[in-house]
Amino acid sequence: MVLSWIVNTLERDLSDNVLFTNVAIEIWADLEKRFEQRNTPRIFQIKRDIATLTQDQMSVSTYYSKLKGYWDELSSLNALEACSYGALKSILAREEQQHLMQFLMGLHESYVTIRGHILLMSPLPTTQKAYSLILQEERQRQIASNSTINNESMAMLSISNKKNGSGINGITKSRHNLRVPTAHSKAVKVVLINNQPATMYKPQSIKLITYSP
């Protein structure tokens, strides 16, 4: 039954090569050796990509996700051999430490301080914990950066308004009742807009005379 399942799930060119093998375990061992050899170039490529991967302009989340994708694929290609529980635990702990070092080495140099704090922790945190700490640091920086930008924008706006002598709406309005000498000495109501006089009410019979200060 197992033999039939293996043969039926193989591609035609592979099933023809194992068609006359009567033992399932022999077919499985043969296939394992073939695909193990084919995986070697891909394993080499993944390890090279991991060694050269750096954060650069990527966010911490994007960088970690890309690195974890390489780790997961590499783990699927490198099957663990049968061993005792103690040996397996030791292998996994060594692999976890290797992942932590690879993650920290590829971080942008702006995280050098928090990276140093993580390396001084005893025991060393897991890669997931280190990622969480770095991500928190990134978010705090973004909040501080946004606050700085807002403060600078408000300062620039205030300076610009002072230079232009303008208020909230860009125009400073002040109203005064000015008595200007005329033929009949009547008051003329004037509005100053940006320090320029604009007559609001001026009878046609009155001639407005402007005096320079």
Write a short abstract of this structure.
With 213 residues, the chain is mostly helical. 61% of the residues lie in helices and 8% in strands. A three-stranded antiparallel sheet has the order 1-2-3, with no helix packed on it.
Descriptive tags:
mainly alpha; 213 residues; three-stranded antiparallel β-sheet; single chain; 3 strands
Account of the 3D structure:
By secondary structure, the chain is mainly α. The chain folds into two domains: about 1-145, no CATH class; about 170-213, no CATH class. Helix content is about 60%, strand content about 10%. The protein has a three-stranded antiparallel beta sheet with strand order 1-2-3, with no helix packed on it. Strand 2 (about 190-195) and strand 3 (about 195-200) form a beta hairpin. Helix 5 (about 85-105) packs parallel to helix 7 (about 125-165). The longest helix is centred in the last third of the chain and has 38 residues, at about 125-165.
Number of helices: 7
- Pattern of helices and strands: HHHHHHHEEE
| Molecular shape | elongated
Distance between the termini: 111 Å
Given helix and strand content, the structural type is mainly alpha
How many β strands by DSSP? 3
Question: Strand content of the residues, in percent?
Answer: 5-15%
Q: Helicity, in percent? A: 55-70%
Order of strands across the main sheet: 1-2-3
On the 0 to 100 scale, the average pLDDT is 75
Taking the sheet with the most strands, its summary is: 3 strands, antiparallel
Low-confidence stretches: 167-178, 183-189, 200-209
How big is the Rg? 39 Å
User: How many domains comprise the coordinates?
Assistant: 2
